[in-house]
Structure formats: C-alpha cells, structure tokens
Write a structure and sequence with these properties.
By secondary structure, chain A is mainly alpha-helical. In chain A, 77% of the residues lie in helices and 2% in strands. In chain A, strands 1-2 form a two-stranded antiparallel ribbon. The two termini of chain B are 17 Å apart. The chains are: A mainly alpha, B mainly alpha.
Chain lengths: 511, 137
C-alpha cells in the first residue's frame, strides 16, 4: 500500500529526469510529459481510493521510525489535493503542447513543470514540517524559473516581485520551524500535535502560530500580503499562469489548514478569529481589485485572491461543516480557476491579446468557446446548478450555524461583485462587437502573417480545447452530482477535526 | 588564458582532481565526504580546464551533455530508492550486499552508494551548466 504514497513524488521525478535525458528532443519531452502526467493522475486516484477504503495511509521513508525519520502521510484531505494536482498537471501539460513556444520548450519547460508537480505533491503528502519547507522550496525554485523562462521584460518584472516576497515568506517559515523545534524538540507533525499542548509557555506557541500564519499567508496570497500574485501571474505563458493559479496558492492554503487543525489549536478563540478576519478582508480586497482591472488574466488573478478568502473562511469557522465547505471550495476552485486561465489563453490564441478593450466578438465567432467560458465563470460566481454554488452554500451554512453573520454577509456581497466582474469579461470579450481596429494592430502584434480577418477564424487544435472541455465537464459534474464530492469533503473535514486518527496513524503501530 | 605553466599544471591536475573526487565520493560512506563534495571537486577540475583552455574544449573533454548528466543522476538516485520498494520495504531504505573482493575481504555494497553517485552526477552537471553558461556570456 505505501508504494502509492511515494508514487506521486517519484513519477514526476522520473519524468523530469528522463526529459532531461531527452534534452535536445522537445517532441519526446512533450510525449513524456503527457505520459508522466497521466501516470501521476492515475497514481493519485489510486491513492485516494486506498485512503477512502483503508483509512489514513503512512509510509516511513528509509524505514526510520516515525518521530525521527520523515513520514509521508495521506489522509483524505491530502489525497484529494494530490488528485487535484494530478488533474491540473495533466490538463496543463496537454494544453502546453499546443501553446508553449519552441524556445521555452528547448530550455527545459517540461522537466521544470514536472519538478513543480513533484514539489506540490510532496508538500501535500509530507508529515514532517521541515520536510514541508523543503518541498516548498522545490516548488518555489521550479516556479521561479518557469515564471522567468523566456526572459521577456514584463515577465522579469513579475518574477522579481514574486521571488522577493516568496523568499521572505520562506525565511519566516524557516525561522518559525527553527523556533518550533527549539520549543517542542520534534518536527514530525503528529508528534508536534502531541507535544505542543504540553509546552509551558503557551504564549510562545501562539506567537509561533502567528509566524506560520504570516509565512503561509504570503504563499496563499491572503490579505494583506497578496500583492505579488496579481503582479506576476499575468506575465508568463498562459499554461504556466493556469498551473500557478490552480495549484500554488492552494499549497499555502493547504499548509494553513494543516497546521491550524493539527498543531495550533490551543487558542482557537484568538488565532481562528484572526483567520476569519483575514478571510473576510482577503475576499473584499481581492474582488475590489478585480473590479478595477481591464486585462483578462489580471482580473482572474485578483479573483484568486478573493477566493482564497472563502477557503480560509471555513478554517476560521473551525467546525466540521466549515472545513468541509473549505475543502469542497478548494476542489471547485482549482478546477474552475485553471479552466478560466486556459480559456483566457484560447481567447489570446485567437485574438492575440488579453486586453478586454481589444477583445470582443468572441461570442459571434466562437459560440462554443463562449459556452465553455460561461460554465466556469458562473460557477466561480456561485450560480446554482454549478459547483461554486454548493461550495458557497456549504460555507454560508457553516457560518450561519456558528453565528458569524458578518463573514456570511461579506461572502454574499463578494459573490455578487464576482458575478459583476465575470459579467464584465463576458460583455467585453464575448458580447460586444469585435473591436474596430482589430483589422490591423492586433494582427501585427501576433506576428503570424496569415492572421485572419473575422471571416476566417484560426482553428484551435485538440490539445487546446480538450483540457478546457474536460475541466468544464468536471465543473458541471461537481454541480449536478454534488453528493459524492460533498460527502468526500465532509469525511475529510471529520479527519481534520479529529487529529487523534492522524496521530495514531503516524505514531501508532508501525507498518 | 595561454600561460604555459597553467596549461602544463592543468594537464597534470585535472586527472588528479577527478581521481580525488571519486575518492571523496567513496570515502563519504563512513567519513566526511560524499556525492555533493565529490561532485563539486569534479566540477572544479572541469572549471580549471575551462579557464585554461575554453568552453568548447572543456565540453568535449566531458564528452556528455551536462543536461544528460543531471537527468541520469536524478534517475540513478530515484532507482536507488526504488530498489527497496521492489523488496517490499519503504522507499529509500538502504539495501546491502556483501561483495567478496580478493585481498581485501568482504566489502559491503549498498544502495546508499548508488544514491551518492546520483548526487555526484547531478552536482557535477548542474555546476558545469552554471559555469559554462556564465563563461559563454
């Protein structure tokens, strides 16, 4: 069984290594990438299945017993996140084969992508807080390079902000881990969960909790430390944006949920109330930022920030229903947000721009694309039959149940603003007639000589549309057949709220 | 740089440094040393060669593309961890065989050495990639 725990880390590693061996053959790298991502998705589904049937799975790396060695742990929440990583990874790799230029491919785009996936999966699976730091670094270094790869002026500017703030966060994280080790004398998270309540200086533990909150808050792009995200996510190729948007901030959210359900639950009235306040402010600032933007991907980037607020809201409520809402929200959000970015890339593929002013007439030219956009866009806003509705409903009910009316009102208001913002993209990019000057300037910008007038729209390939369609279908499925997904989220939330099972699985009877 | 002294010294030093790097790699098993230090020493040998002659001749002296070296090293490290999986033990558990060597006795050979060799290759490859791309600027 515990082979399954290693596979989500091993598969991307081997794929990246073999891709490096095929350095001069981008075609091979493409196929290797697709194969590796498919294998990762299959392995992650198998892992989820085994966790669902067999309870929390653990594996002691190198056969070193639990509190001393590094333990890989998969509870339901971890397994769900790994499946999400596999899904987004697969969609993005397929999409990349149609959109990433040869220059980037020849500078190791695919190996980096897989190293990034390895870092993400490792962060989801590790049961050791220092090891979590290591996976964060693996992930960040790969993302730095992916962000800057290509070396366009705008990209470097975005990458600079991204790198600076993320390095600060890493430094804080590392310092916090160091102090934590000084206080508790262990780094295994299950062991920490047992030992932290016995620490005499409970004030120090709360201080540590705040350090972790800031460090992970930066990574998750929570208020007030989110500025790096909208400053950088619109600069790299769209496949990279989509992967970052889908996964990276969610690793921060995952880490927050993990440490604030397992480790720092001593002063819930202080820490989790603070998280709730942060959640509300994150929602509001994110959506207000989005209202002010006029570029497709920048709007979406600000919406990521806003949505992070919803995910934190469930954690701040700190009830089973709240966490279940958060987990369902994360599943929904990863699929929807990745899809929206991919669609912005398709629009750019056809029109050569992300500026809403210059876009337009997409509905007339590509009605299919318009429908594909509407599904995730309405889902993001939380319109009933779609996945976003159930995600928000779950959170709102949890909020009402605990009497946190302020955050419920905020969440509702932000939903409305999200809808307005999505309507803006719809009206500008899809509905309004194609911009008049599109005869010349945008066509010249793309540099493709056969770039057409509107009567002869460029064709999209299978690799361009297949991921978008699959993700849209998944959004629909999660909305129309919400029951099993909600059930899974509730089960995962139960495991999070009762950490005894997690501790038992790691430290109890050794396999 | 075309100093006669440097060229002569490099010809002598490079094999010596490479030999020493392998020694450090093997020594790292029970004493200070290991794949990382060994890989850096090997990279230093090629860096010296690059300074003395130039990048293309250093590249041909290495014979293989450093990218491939990095890939192969990663793969080797992954395989060394995977061997224990095949035997039903957790990932990265050290597996040992005793190899009788005439004149020395039994030498314990383990997957740890394989892992270290992988590290050696990755460090050598990455360091040379950095040095050569800077030298070519």
């Amino acid at each position: 069984m515990n082979v399954l725990l290693v596979l989500p880390i091993l598969i991307p590693l081997v794929t990246a290594a073999v891709s490096l061996l095929a350095w001069r053959r981008p075609r091979w790298q493409r196929w290797l990438g697709i194969g590796g991502a498919a294998a990762l998705l299959a392995a992650s589904l198998a892992l989820l299945e085994s966790v669902r049937n067999g309870g929390i799975q653990t594996a002691q790396m190198g056969d070193w017993p639990a509190p001393f060695g590094i333990t890989l742990v998969a509870d339901l929440f971890s397994a769900i996140m790994v499946v999400m990583a596999g899904l987004v990874g697969f969609a993005v790799v397929v999409y990349s084969t149609a959109t990433v230029d040869h220059r980037r491919e020849s500078f190791g785009y695919y190996p980096l992508l897989h190293i990034l996936l390895m870092g993400v999966c490792g962060a989801f699976l590790t049961g050791d807080i220092f090891n979590l730091y290591v996976w964060f670094e693996v992930m960040l270094i790969a993302s730095f390079v992916l962000l800057a790869l290509g070396g366009e002026r705008e990209q470097l500017e975005g990458a600079f902000k991204y790198v600076t703030l993320n390095l600060m966060s890493s430094a804080l994280f590392l310092a916090a881990v160091g102090i934590l080790y000084g206080v508790a004398g262990t780094l295994n998270m299950a062991d920490l969960a047992r030992k932290l309540p016995q620490v005499e200086q409970s004030g120090l533990v709360t201080t540590l909790a705040m350090l972790f909150l800031v460090a992970f808050g930066i990574k998750a792009a929570a208020f007030p430390l989110f500025f790096w995200l909208p400053a950088s996510y619109h600069t790299p190729p769209v496949a990279v944006s989509a992967l970052f948007a889908g996964l990276l901030t969610k690793v921060g959210v995952y880490a927050l949920i993990r440490v604030f359900t397992l480790l720092f639950t001593q002063e819930v009235s202080y820490t989790h109330t603070l998280i709730l306040a942060v959640a509300g402010l994150t929602m509001v600032t994110g959506v207000l930022g989005a209202m002010a933007q006029n570029e497709f991907r920048r709007i979406l980037s600000f919406h990521i920030v806003s949505q992070i607020g919803y995910m934190l809201m469930g954690l701040g409520l700190f009830t089973v229903a709240g966490l279940a809402g958060s987990i369902f929200y994360i599943m929904h959000h990863i699929i929807v947000k990745t899809n929206l970015f991919l669609i912005s890339g398709v629009a750019n593929h056809f029109r050569g721009t992300y500026q809403l002013k210059e876009l337009g007439g997409l509905y007339r030219a590509y009605p299919g694309l318009a429908v594909l956009f509407l599904i995730p866009a309405l889902s993001l806003a939380g319109v009933p039959p779609l996945s976003g509705f159930f995600a928000k409903l779950g959170l709102l009910q949890a909020g009402l149940a605990t009497g946190q009316y302020a955050i419920v009102a905020t969440a509702l208001g932000v939903s409305l603003l999200t809808l307005i913002s999505m309507t803006k993209i719809w009206a500008e990019a899809f509905w309004k007639p194609a911009a008049a000057p599109s005869v010349d300037p945008p066509a010249a910008g793309t540099g493709t000589p056969q770039d057409p007038s509107q009567h002869d729209p460029p064709k999209g390939s299978l690799a361009l549309f297949a991921p978008v369609v699959v993700l849209a279908v998944l959004t629909l499925t999660m909305g129309l057949v919400a029951e099993p997904f909600v059930g899974l989220a509730i089960q995962a939330a139960h495991q999070l709220m009762n950490p005894a099972g997690y501790i038992e699985a790691v430290l109890g009877g050794r396999p | 740089m075309s100093s006669l002294i440097l060229r002569t010294a490099t010809r002598l030093l490079k094999p010596l440094m490479l030999f020493f790097s392998v020694f450090v790699l093997l020594r790292g098993h029970n004493e200070p040393g290991g794949g990382f230090a060994g890989g850096l020493m090997a990279a230093a040998a090629f860096a010296l060669y690059t300074i003395t002659f130039d990048v293309p001749s250093a590249r041909s002296a290495l014979r293989i593309d450093p990218h491939n070296l990095v890939g192969a090293g990663l793969l080797l490290a992954a395989i060394s961890g995977g061997i224990s999986l095949l035997q039903g033990r957790p990932f990265l558990t050290g597996q040992w065989i005793a190899l009788p060597v005439p004149g020395v006795g039994e030498v314990a050979l383990g997957t740890v050495l394989l892992f270290d060799t992988g590290v050696y290759m990755v460090v050598l490859g990455v360091t040379l990639l950095i040095i050569w791309s800077l030298a070519e600027e």
